[in-house]
Structures are given as structure tokens and as C-alpha cells.
Amino acid sequence: MIELYTWKTANCQKVNIALCEIGLPFRVHPIDLTRGEQKSADHLARNPNGKVPVVTDTETGITLFESGAILLYLANKARCLMPEGDAQKWRAIQWIFWQMAGLGPNAAQVIHFSNAPDGGEEALTRFRGELERLFGVLERELTGKSYLVEDYSMADISIWPWVSRFRRVGLELYDYPEIKRWYLAIADRPGVVDGVRLLQPEAEIAKP
């Protein structure tokens, strides 16, 4: 059994979707960030960094935080959603790290500074410019490909929830036709729909 400590963020959605896709049994423990539950003593015992998602595998006793590490662990445990060939496996891991280091942090900063009371225009311009560059990288990589690495994998799951925030970061997928095609194909997967709605049963996936 996987004990899943999660909320409604993009990083949490990655793990929510992965668990719904691979079919391992799991139990959901909502950690309400709006109430500061991630800073409780109980949660800090699971994750000293005070964030979500976190998983505990009751079969192995392993507890993990950081969504990228969790995706790799789940893929290894379930023996799915990662390419079997060594070269393709490392390419998938490469794209997970790309999301963790670039796409996610820059999108989060754009969302933050878009709602900053003091405007933060200089910072917003900087982060949005970098985010547009990263969308361009993804657009070129997806040209002529159904998924990032051969078949659907944890690489796609890692990136998709952040792309789903496209309107919140002031972008439109009509400007990125390859991303749009990839995004919509993944949006129709039952595991993705279930993962998005795990804590929000009425949630609608944004469509361009």
C-alpha cells in the first residue's frame, strides 16, 4: 500500500496521476496547504522540508519526498511507465530533471508574480521570458513525436500538470501546436482525469 500525502498543486498532481495510471493500491491523505498542515510536526517527521507530495510504501517502509524521486520510485516498483532500453530510460529521466529544474520553478514564479500586490513587473518579465523559452524547447522536442520518449512515460507525467497551468501563466497552446496536440492526447487518458480529480471531483481539465 502506498500512503499518499498530497494536495492540489502541479507537483502533487504528477504523483496523483502516476498512481492512478499504474494501478498500485494507495490511500490518500490530504495535506491542506491553506491551513499550513505541511508544517505540522507529524508531516515534518515525514518530510523535514515541509512540503508535499510525500509517499510512504508500507511494504518496504520507504518514505520519499520530492515529486521527481517519487515518480522514479513508482516506475521502478510497478515496472512500468519508464522505457526499458538504457538510452531511452536516461532520456526520460533527463526530461523529468528538466521539468524539476526549469519548467516547474519558472511557471511557479510567473504565477506568484502575476498575483503579487506590488506588481513585481521586472521579475514577472524575467520569469515569463524564461518560461516562453522553455515552452519553445518542449515544442521543438515534441515535433513529430507522440510522447517525449517513445511511449507515454513518467517524463510526460512530470511535465503535463505544469503545462496544464498554461492560462495561469499567460500562455495559449494555440501558439504551440505540438505541445497542444501532446497535451490534449494526455488529457483524455482516464488515469490523468482521475489524478486531476483525486482531491477535486468536479475539476475540469483546461482545454485550449
TrEMBL record:
Residues 1-82 form the GST N-terminal domain. InterPro entries: Glutathione-S-Trfase_C-like, Glutathione-S-Trfase_C_sf, Glutathione_S-Trfase, Glutathione_S-Trfase_N, Thioredoxin-like_sf. Pfam families: GST_C_2, GST_N. Residues 85-208 form the GST C-terminal domain. Gene3D superfamilies: 1.20.1050.10, Glutaredoxin. CDD domains: GST_N_Ure2p_like. SUPFAM superfamilies: GST C-terminal domain-like, Thioredoxin-like. This is GST-like protein. It comes from Roseibium marinum.
